[in-house]
């Protein structure tokens, strides 16, 4: 059960075909088939099954793929930890960030960090909340920038930064805004901002029409074009507010305070801590407050 076989199986699981997996890994299709067959033989269960001209994972294969991703992520994390411990400035750092943080918070931070540590290998994955927290859980990311980490994921909050969510709309829409009737422009499923917007409306028993767009940028552009109101990070709409394309609506209960969190696994690598030190030296970032158990108790 070699690392190469695990990577091959995960490539098949991700792409859904032997040909696509072979193209991703720069190997032959026969090599992919042989690796998956050998892995299934070692496990004693079928991992894939034919469906027409394609294939799909068996139930056993679906379960095993999750473990395989975590094992591969942990191996990579171990390599990064060893290299970083020996020389943090020449280690590697795998960042993952939700879209708004990647667009509005990270660029200047990364530029300064890269200028200071040019010998460091840096990767950045950007996606909705569900995806980036999944990367942390599967050991595919050393540090995540997003909202509060969800329950059930082993996580260490290393730094926080204020972030306010506000309701915005084009001036004409803002002037006639009504919580229950004005259309809302929403993020895609899996977005933390969408979950927050849905919870905000549900708490107020409001059921406005919704238009789902595919990215944070599309939501902002749609709101500026007059498609409806949107709940967004104030960080993401500074230019639109400044030039008058959007206005902040004085919606009940807003702004919502949803700080950015820089989150690692239980044992952050030396290189991860190097980046966190860089964060904490930047304006607005600070150490997380002490844990208060009372804040998590029910009434």
From TrEMBL:
Keyword Transcription regulation recorded: yes
Query: Known PROSITE patterns for this protein?
Result: HTH_LYSR
Q: Which residues form the HTH lysR-type domain?
A: 1-58
Xref: Pfam families: HTH_1, LysR_substrate
Coiled-coil residues are none
- What's the superkingdom here? Bacteria
Q: RNA-binding as a keyword?
A: no
Which keywords, in A-to-Z order, does the entry hold? Answer: DNA-binding, Transcription, Transcription regulation
Which InterPro entries did the record assign? Answer: LysR_HTH_N, LysR_subst-bd, WH-like_DNA-bd_sf, WH_DNA-bd_sf
Q: Which GO terms describe its molecular function?
A: DNA-binding transcription factor activity; transcription cis-regulatory region binding
Q: Which organism is it from?
A: Actinomadura craniellae
* Family of the protein in this entry: Belongs to the LysR transcriptional regulatory family.
Please identify the protein, giving its name as recorded. Answer: LysR family transcriptional regulator
């Amino acid at each position: 059960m070699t690392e190469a076989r695990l990577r091959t199986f995960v490539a098949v699981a991700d792409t859904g075909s032997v040909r696509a997996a072979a193209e991703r890994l720069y190997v032959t299709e026969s090599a992919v088939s042989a690796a998956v067959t050998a892995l299934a033989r070692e496990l004693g269960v079928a991992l894939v099954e034919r469906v027409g001209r394609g294939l799909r994972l068996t139930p056993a294969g679906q379960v095993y793929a999750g473990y395989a991703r975590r094992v591969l992520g942990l191996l990579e994390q171990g390599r990064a930890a060893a290299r970083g411990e020996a020389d943090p400035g020449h280690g590697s750092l795998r960042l993952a960030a939700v879209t708004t943080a990647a667009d509005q918070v990270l660029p200047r931070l990364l530029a300064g960090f890269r200028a200071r540590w040019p010998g460091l290998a840096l990767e950045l994955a950007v996606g909705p909340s569900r995806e980036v927290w999944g990367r942390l859980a599967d050991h595919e990311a050393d540090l995540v920038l997003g909202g509060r980490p969800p329950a059930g994921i082993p996580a260490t909050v290393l730094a926080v930064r204020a972030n306010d969510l506000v309701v915005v709309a084009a001036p004409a829409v803002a002037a006639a805004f009504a919580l229950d009737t004005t259309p809302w422009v929403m993020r895609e499923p899996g977005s933390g901002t969408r979950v927050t917007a849905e919870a905000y409306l549900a708490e107020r028993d409001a059921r406005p029409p919704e238009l789902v767009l595919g990215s944070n940028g599309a939501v902002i552009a749609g709101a500026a074009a007059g498609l409806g109101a949107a709940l967004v990070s104030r960080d993401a709409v500074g230019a639109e507010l400044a030039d008058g394309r959007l206005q902040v609506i004085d919606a009940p209960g807003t702004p919502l305070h949803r700080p950015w969190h820089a989150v690692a696994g239980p044992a952050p690598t030396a290189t991860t801590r190097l980046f966190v030190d860089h964060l904490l030296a930047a304006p607005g970032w600070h150490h997380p407050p002490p844990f208060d158990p009372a804040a998590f108790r029910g009434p």
